[in-house]
Amino acid sequence: MQLVVDQLETKLGKKEIVKNISLQVNKQKFVGVIGPNGCGKSTLLKSIYKSIPPHNGKVFLGDIDVLNTSQKKISQQLGVVGQFNEMHFDLTVEQMVLLGRTPHKKLLEVDNQEDIDIVEEALSQTNLLDYKNRSYLSLSGGEKQRTILARTIAQQPQFMILDEPTNHLDIRYQLEILQCVKDLKIGVLAALHDLEMAAHYCDYLYAMQNGKVYAAGTPEEVLTPEIIGELYQIKCETYTNPVTKQLGFVYQI
Amino acid sequence: MRTEQVSNARLKQTYYLFAMIFLICAIAITAVYSVSIGQVPIPFQQSMQVVLHTITNGHLGSLEQIESDSYINIIMQVRMPRVLFALLIGMGLALCGVVMQAIVQNPLADPYILGISSGGSLGATFAILVGFGSGTVLAQFGVAFGAFMGAMITSVLVLGISSIGGKVTSIKLVLSGVVIGALCSSLSSLVIFFANDAEGIKSVTFWTMGSLASASWSKLPILTIVVLAGCILFLFQHRVLNTMLLGDESAITLGINLSVFRKLYMIIAALITGTMVAYSGMIGFVGLIIPHICRGLVGSDHTRLMPASLLLGGLFLMWADVLSRILVENVELPIGILTSVIGSPLFIYMIVKRGYNFGG
C-alpha cells in the first residue's frame, strides 16, 4: 500500500512541531525518517496515525483519506510499533498478540480458530512460539518489543509505521526486529536513530530538522558527511565498511 | 513441543471451567447456609427444602418436614433478600473494581476511587445531620438518596475536571479524584463539626462502615437491574478492557479511542457504585482485593477475569455477611469491618504464597 502525506502541519499547544511536511512511501518500500532528537520525527509519525491530530494537511493510505476515516478502519490497514511503553497489568504473550486482532473484530465478537492461527503465525515469524504462555512483564526489552511486533503482524496491516522501534535494544534484537519487518514486504515508514541501520534497511530516506524535511533521497544521497554534519551538528566521515561493504560512519564533535 | 502447549492450554481451560463451577456451587450452598443462621437457627436440611421448593415453584423439595411455618417466612421474607443483597453488592463491587482498575490503569483503584466514596459520604452525612427530616422511613430514604446524589455529583465533577484540555487520561482521572475526594471529606468534617447531634454522628460512623441490614424485597428490583445490567454489559467488553491495559498510545493503533470508553465506563461504574452506596453504605476493600485475587488465579485477561471476579466477589460478601452475624452473639458487626478483616490476610496470603505481584 502507498502512503502519501501532503503538507502536514501539527502543533503541540501553541508550538508548531511539524511544519508543512510532504512525503511519500511507495508500495512495499522501506522508508526511513532520520533527524536529531526533538526534530519532530515522532510527532510526524503520530500525526500520520492520528494519535496527535494534525492541524492541516492530508494523509492518504492507498485510497483511504486517513484524517477523515474512523480509527478502526485505519487500524485494519495500518500497524504501528511504537517506543517502549509501561504496563501495570500482566498478560501472557499470546493474549497480548491476540489483541492485535481487535481492529478486525466487532465489539462483541469472540476470537475464533482463524484468529488463533494468525496469532500462531505471527508468533512463529517473530520467534516467540516458545514464549506463548510466558507473562509479558517477565520478558526482556527485546522480547517485549518482539511481542509488540508480533501483535502488529497479527493485525495483518498493509502498511507499518515504526517509531524508533529498536530504542534501548541490543544489536541482535535491533537487527531481528528490522529484518522481520523488512521480510513482511509491505510499505514501511520508520523513524530510526541508527544511521548504519537506516543505510542498510531503507530504500529511501527523509532527513528532518526543526519540523521540516531537510533532505530526501536514497541513503547514498542523504547520508553524506555534509548533510549528516549539518543535521546533527557534528563532524562526520563516511566510509565503506570493509566487511559488510555497507556505509559506515565516524562521528566527532 | 506444540502438542504439549495445546494440551497445556486445554488443561488451563478445564481448570478455569472447574473453578467457575465450583464458585457457583459454593454460592448456592452459602446462600442456603446463610438463610439458616440467625436469631432463630433453622436446620440446614430444612432451609434447603424451603429454598428448593420456592425457587422451583414446588417441583423440587417438600415442605412436609418443616418444623415450624414461621421458618418459611423467616427464610423467604427476612433472610433471603439479605443474601441476595450480599451476592449482588459483592458482584457489583468486584465489577466496578475491575473496571476502575482498567480505566485508570492502576492496580490501586477500587470502586470508591475517583471521589465516589467521599461524595457518597458527604451526601449521607448531609442527609443524616442536616437533612431530610427525622421520620424513620423518610430518613432512611433520605440517606440513600443523599449518598446516591453525592456519589453521582462527584463522579460527574471528576469526569468534568479530567476532560479539561481534551483527552481523559488515567493520571488526570486519579488526580482529580483525589482532589475532589479531599474537598468532599473536609466538607463532611465541617458538617460534623457544626452538628450538635451525638446520635447523628453515630449514624454517620455506622454508615461509613457499611451494612446490609436494610435489605428487603422492595429494594431488590432496582439493585438487581442496575448490577445485573452492568455485569452483562461489562462481560462483553473484555476486548476494550484488555486494550485499556495497554494504554492510550497502543489502543489508538488498534482502532480504539480510550478517552471515549473511559468516560462511558466511568459513568456506568459510578451509577452502579452510587446505587450500591445508597443501599449498603460504604463496604470497602472488596472492589480492591477481589480483582487482584482473581488476577492471581486466572490472569489479567478480562475474558476470564470478569466472570471470576463477579462470582468470587459475590461469594466473598456473602461470607462476610454470614460472619458479621455469627461472630459476636446477638450483635451484628458492620460488614465493612469484616471485609477488611478477612480480606487483608487473604491478600497477604496471595502475595506470600503464590508470588502474586499486584497484576504487574
TrEMBL record, chain A:
Keyword Magnesium: no
UniProt entry keywords in alphabetical sequence: ATP-binding, Nucleotide-binding, Transport
Gene3D superfamilies in the cross-refs: P-loop containing nucleotide triphosphate hydrolases
Any matching Pfam family: ABC_tran
UniProt cross-references to InterPro entries, sorted A to Z: AAA+_ATPase, ABC_transporter-like_ATP-bd, P-loop_NTPase
MF GO annotations: ATP binding; ATP hydrolysis activity
The ABC transporter domain, residue ranges: 3-235
Stored PANTHER family: ABC TRANSPORTER ATP-BINDING PROTEIN (PTHR42794:SF2), HEMIN IMPORT ATP-BINDING PROTEIN HMUV (PTHR42794)
Protein name: Iron complex transport system ATP-binding protein
Species whose genome carries this gene: Sediminibacillus halophilus
TrEMBL record, chain B:
Gene3D superfamilies: ABC transporter involved in vitamin B12 uptake, BtuC
UniProt family annotation: Belongs to the binding-protein-dependent transport system permease family. FecCD subfamily.
Topological relation to the membrane, as annotated: Multi-pass membrane protein
GO cellular component, one term: plasma membrane
Residue intervals passing through the bilayer: 15-35, 83-104, 111-132, 138-161, 173-195, 215-236, 264-290, 310-328, 335-352
Keyword Transmembrane: yes
One biological process term in Gene Ontology: siderophore-iron import into cell
Location in the cell: Cell membrane
Keywords, comma-separated and alphabetical: Cell membrane, Membrane, Transmembrane, Transmembrane helix, Transport
Predominant cellular place of this UniProt entry's protein: membrane
Protein name as annotated: Iron complex transport system permease protein
CDD domains associated with the record: TM_ABC_iron-siderophores_like
Cited Pfam families: FecCD
Superkingdom field: Bacteria
Molecular function terms from GO: transmembrane transporter activity
